[in-house]
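It is worth pausing here to work through a concrete case rather than discussing structure prediction in the abstract. The textbook approach is simple: state the sequence, then state the predicted structure, then interpret. We follow exactly that order.
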Amino acid sequence: MSNLREDGLRVFREMLPGTLPDGDVDFGGGFAPELMDIGVESVFGRLWTREGLSRRDRSLVTLGILIALRATEEMDAHFRIARQNGLSEEELAEVIYHASGYAGFPAAATARTIAAKALSRD
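Step two, the predicted structure:
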């Protein structure tokens, strides 16, 4: 059986290069200190490593969900991950356009603002 933490850290580093240091990572204490560990293991270690969808396709699905949820804190990283996973700026704009019809104009406008900032750092 694979180590979900190791797999999660590897995938996270591949999709957001330079964000995490090498080796194991202590995400710190504070309130709900295990939340990042849960995310690394279950989201990046279990979901992003599954066969069935490419990372590119997973990025499309993830962005659509995040836009619909107006999950602004997560969108920034996931627009950068989507670029790393092969989506062009034109394709990311189409995701936002398409989301406007299903998630609403305000959600799409917020996503546009976040994408512009996130992609300007590439």
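Step three, interpretation. The chain has a mean pLDDT of 94. The domain at 55-120 is CATH 1.20.1290.10 (AhpD-like).
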